[in-house]
Amino acid sequence: MKRIALGMLLTASAAAAPTCEPTLRGAGVRTIEGQTYVVAWRASPAIQTGDFFALDVAACSRRSNAPTILRVDAQMPEHRHGMNYRPTVSSRGEGRFAVAGLLLHMPGRWELSFELRGVDGAETLRTSLPVP
Amino acid sequence: MIRGIIALALLLLAGAAPAQPAPVTFTEEERARILAHGPWPSAPLRDSSNRVSGNRDAIDLGRRLFSDAALSRSGYIGCVTCHQPDRALTDLRPRAHGMADVDRNTPALVNLRQQRWFGWAGTSDSLWMASIRPLLDPREFDSDAAWIVRRFSLNDDLACRYRKVFGRAPDRADDELLANVGKALAAFEETLVTGRTPFDEFRDALARGDAQAMQRYPAAARRGLALFIGRGNCFVCHSGPNFSNGEFHDIGIPFFIAKGKVDPGRHEGIRTLRASVFNLLGRFNDDASRTNATATRHVALEHRNWGEFRTPSLRNVAVTPPYMHNGSLATLRDVVLHYSELDGERLHADGERILRKLNLAEEQIGDLVAFLDTLTDADGERRLLPPLDPKPCE
User: What is the pTM of this model?
Assistant: First the structure.
């Protein structure tokens, strides 16, 4: 009985993935969880078709250090096109980034992607974004 | 007996009452799409890049310059030559003609404050920059700063008005003079707006749930609207209160101008914009923060931009034929037929995939045209310019 309990405890420990919590919380923050990284982001102003917006982004690594490089893009998969503008990314250190110059020029379903790179490798996290 | 007579009377009255038409209904998604095309008019905005935007004296100066053919080297080309007040501020020609044929159709000069980019290729990022371009084009005004200085030197009243607006005499043939002339023209052009339309009345009735008012909208236009926001997918590019997303697309209209000559469209527009001293990243932007230059700062130049042209607004579209960047489609019916019979092979190979052949029935084509007709305001093609104040400048 004790051996069974110990075996179950060891199995449970191996299955639980390490967690991390990005340093961005509060109203309007959305989170995407990947295998390696977790990213939280908030748009300002709120996303409206045809208006520029910026992103406040925080990312952490489930393994060790936060990613140091971020690339953000957006596509409309059904329409096979992206944005007409190239956003700029500024690193604030410790997994924090400011992204400027995003504009979603059509209503419909967009896919926002965050390409993260760091000592723990590269990973692209995506999220679906319906824009009215 | 009396009860029978009353019953009969009631029956007759019920029969005499006009049958109520079926209520107009939309799904929540359709309703949201329709409401997104308003309200109209939009709140007037001042252009932060133009310090004389909204300035009454600048508007007056711009109004005078708009009609002044002496700004052109020939002496007979003015803004009104192509932007004719009795022709919806366009010229009804496939392609504009000044001193020579221009490659593209004359856009109607209305509702310009709604735009982020100007010109079919978005060569300009402000209205004042767009107002400078034709002055310097040898096919249009064929003018330059020196010629404009000369023009002012021959007209004391005009020179006085310039001094009043800009605080200095128009006597230096430099880029600042050109920027100021562009800004005065833009201050006036911003005042050219279209009014409310039958569609706006319907849209607002829908917003407030006024079924009776909604019934006044023609049935054919309603069916056309349903296509516009539904199967036709028109609303995706012709979005918002001004019926344009203000961006650039390849819609399968050939971009060949003549044998051996193509119109690069947005691709050249971006390159020309970036090279110009008059763009919003330059010193003539009156907003020192440059927050109004975000679009110019971030615009991406891509191969697919070849042959892309700006989505025009559909407000008053019925009175601004012919259509497309090269004026190649004579009527609205031709435009709808273009989308109905679209040849996907003509679209850019690495471009977007929004359009598809619609295969519309004849009645559906008529319905879409009927809908587009309801985007016309009461003045239609008559855009009378305000009269000039005869009082001389002091």
Answer: 0.90
